[in-house]
Amino acid sequence: MRMIKFEHVGLRYGIGPEVLKDISFSLEPGSFHFLTGKSGAGKTSLMRLMYLGKRPTRGLISMFGKNVNGQSAAHMTQLRQKIGVVFQDFRLMNHLSAFDNIALPLRIIGRPEKEIKANVEELMEWVDLHDCAKASPATLSGGQQQRISIARAIISKPRLLLADEPTGNLDDSIGAKLMGLFEQLNRMGTTIVIATHSKSILDSFHHPRLVIKDGLLSIETIRSPFSSFEDFSEQESIYNA
Question: Distance between the two ends of the chain, CA-based, in angstroms?
Answer without folding.
Answer: 26
